[in-house]
Amino acid sequence: MDFNQMSNMNSSQQLNDRQRTAQFGLQDLLQEEQYQQSPVTHTKSLADDYLTRPRSQNQNQINANNSNNLIASSKNSNQNTNQSINDSASQSSGSNNIVSALIPNIVYDIIHHYWQKEPIQQNEQQQKQVIKKIQKDEAPKFKPSHQNDYRQQLIDLGVKDKYILNGEQYIKDIQAGLKSATFRLEGKLILTNFKLIYVVTNGKYESLGSPDFYQIQLMMIQSCERTVEKKGNQFSYIDIECKDVRKYQFRFNFDQNEESQEFMGLLIDNAFNKEIYKYPAFVYKKYNDEEQQFNGWNIYNIKKEFERMRINIYDPTQQNSNSNQEQFYYKYLNNELKDICDTYPPYLVVPYFMQEETIKKCSKFRSRERLPVLTFGFKSSNEQKLPVTLWRCSQCRTGFSSRSTEDEQMLRLIGDPTNKDNRSSNNVNVHIYDARPFMNAVGNKLAGKGYESNSCYKNCDIQFLDIHNIHKVRDSYNKLVSVCLSSDQQIKWFKEVDSSQWLEHISSIIQGAVRICQSMLANNHVVVHCSDGWDRTSQLCSLAQIFLDPYYRTIEGFCSLIQKDWVYFGHQFNLRQGHGQRNQSEETSPIFLQFLDCVHQVQNYYPLSFEFNEQFLVDLAFSSYNCQYGTFLANSYQELVKQDIIKQTISVWSFLLSKRHIYENPFYKKDDQIQTLKPDFQQRSLKIWNRYFFFYQFQRLDEYKIEQQKCRFNEDNIQNQHKKSQEALQFYESLLKELKIQIPKQRVTPKDLANLVKQSIIKDYEAQQVFKQDSEYNEEDYDIILKQSSHIVNQNSRQMN
C-alpha cells in the first residue's frame, strides 16, 4: 500500500486499526525492557491530560500524530521495522512520537470498552474516578504477548489451538512412542504447566480415540515411574497411571536416555507439587474472565437456603427485625473464628434453647469437635408448625463408660425443639443413623470413641448402615479400575466386577439414604454420622436431600448441595483426591466419586427427574481431580478462606453454569412439589458407570475415517423426532388397514389361506396368526397350510429352474 492509499483511509478503518492497537499494540510495547514498570505508570500522565480534554480535540491530535508517524515510517520503509520506529521516535517530539500517539488511543479504548458502567463524560469527578481505577491497577488484565508466544509455540508443535488452555505455557517436548495392548503410536510428547500432550505423527492413527485421550492434565496423574531395559534395545519407559481410569506407557530410544530422564524430572516437579499456590487454578483465573461473571463462589447462601425450606431461624445480628417474628426454635451460631469447630462452616444452625457454653461442651464430646448441626428440613404442609429435620455430626467420645449431659440435651432438643426446660422423655422421636458397620463402631470404643447408647439417649433409636470406610472403598476402586483397564480377552468380567465389591458399596449407600428418607417421611428427626462426619456422612445427607427435595435435582440446586454438604462441611478434598501426591496415601479415597456414581444410578432409575445430564456428573468428577478450579483444592471451607483461594481462583460452579446448555437434560420434568424418589438399591438394578470408567476407552474407527459424533438434543430436533415417530405410526396403521381389507372377513378354510399365501397377499406367519386368533382352527389345519405353502414354493422353484 503506497502513501496516498494510506492517507486516504476512511475514519472507520482508522478506528478499527486503533481498536486492534488497543488489544495488541499495548501488549508488545509495554513488554519491552524499556517498559519494565507497570503499564499504569507509563499511561498515567497521558491519561490525566487526555481525559480532561474533549474527545474531538483528542481525535484531531490523534489524526495528526498518525499522519506524521505514517510519513516517518514511509521514509524508512526499506529499514527494519523496529529500527524505523526507533528512528521516527528519536527524530520526533510531542505529537511526532509514535508511542505518544498509541498510548492515548489505548487508554481511551481501554476505559471506554471495559468501564461502560461508569461512562466517561465531561464531569471531572467521574474522570478522576476512572483514573484512580487505572492507578490501582484495577483495569482489565490483558493476555500478555508472551502468552501468545507460548500458544503459537504449541501450535507449531502440532497442538490444535482449541485444545490450548488460556495461561498454558510450554516447558519441554520429546519424541516418544506410545505403547498399548492393541497398537503402537509414534509422536511427540509435550509438557506444559497444565498437562501432557501427545501429538501423533504417524497419520494412520491420527483419529484414534477421542482428543482427550492424548491430553493428560498433570494433576490427574496418580503415579509416574521410569524404567530402563537392561537387555535388547535398552529402551527407557515412562509409565503413567491416572486418577480417571487411564494408563500410558511412553517409550524412548536408547540415545534419548538422558533426555527422557530430564523430561521425567520436569514432569515430576510439575505434577507432584504440594505447594497449593502452584496449582493450575491460580494461573487459570488470570486468563479466563468469562467464567468469573457467573460468580460460582456465591452459589450457596445459608440464610437464603433455610428461607427456601421455610424454616425460621433466629439471627442474632438482626435483632430488631427478628423481634416481631414468631417464636424461634433454631438459631444461627457464629463460627467464623473457628472457636467451635475449625472444619465446620462460618455459620451453624443449632437448637434455639442451647446456650453457647453448653454447645461448646457438646462439641468437645464429639470427634474433631463436629457437634450435631442442622443441614436440611422440610414441612409437608403449610399448617405444620415444626419442620422435620436432618442433622449431621461425628461419632461421640463415649468409650466404654463416658457420657455427656450436654450432648444428651442436644439430642433431646433435636427431637423436641420446644423443650425449653430440658425435660427428659422416653418418647423416641430421633433416629440416629451410624454409617459404620456395627463391629467397626465397637472397635472405636477402644480409642475412647464409639456410638450413642440407648440407656443415655432415651429418645433416640440407633441403627447401623454397614457402609465401609475409606480404605475398603479405595481397595475396591483399585480392583475395579484394574478390571476396566485389563486387556485380557479371557477375563471373566462379571465375576471380576463382583469381586471388586464396588457395586456392593454403591448399593449400601443408596439403601442407607432410602432408610433416612423413610424415617423423615414418618416425621422422625434424623441424625447422621460416621467416624469423623466428613465422608460417609456427606454421602448419606446429600443423597437423602436429593431424594426428598426436587430443588436439589436441578443444576443450581445440585451445585448448592455439594457446596454446602461437601465443601462447607469439610470433606477433605485435598487429601481424598490426592492433590500433589506422587503415590496414594492412606488418606486417599474416591469418596466423592462414589457419591456421584450413586447419583448416576438414581439418575438412570429416574431419567426425567434430574435437570442435569450424565455428562454433568462426569465433568464434575474430572474437575474434582484436575485442580483447574479452586472449589476442591482444600480440606474445608475455612481452609479455602484462610489460604485466600476464593479470591485467587475460579469456582467450578462458574465453569459448569457457563456451559449450562451442554448439561441440561432435555427430558427433565419439573415438579415443584416434594416428590420423593425411592430408587431400587438392589445390586441387580445397578450398572457400572460406563461413561466414567470407560470414558477413554476407544475403538479403531480410523480404518474407514469414521468420526464419533455426539447426539445433541434440543427442542427442535426432539419435536422433529416426535413428528417422524407419529408419521411412522400412521404408516403402520395404514398397512394394517390394508391387510384387513385384503383378508376376507368371512371364515376361510386352510386351502383358502394357502391360496392367499400363493398370491403373496399374506405371509405364512400371518396365516398362523389367523389360527391363533380363531379357536375353531386347530394344529392339523395349520399343518395343511404349511404343506400347501411348501408345495407352492417347490412348484414355483421348479418352474424357475
From TrEMBL:
PROSITE patterns per the UniProt record, alphabetical: PPASE_MYOTUBULARIN (PS51339), TYR_PHOSPHATASE_1 (PS00383)
Domain Myotubularin phosphatase: start-end pairs: 296-693
Region span, Disordered: 56-94
Composition bias type Low complexity, residue spans: 56-88
Pfam families with a match to the protein in the record: Myotub-related
Annotated active site: C530
Family designation: Belongs to the protein-tyrosine phosphatase family. Non-receptor class myotubularin subfamily.
Protein's name in the database: Myotubularin-related protein
Organism per entry: Tetrahymena thermophila (strain SB210)
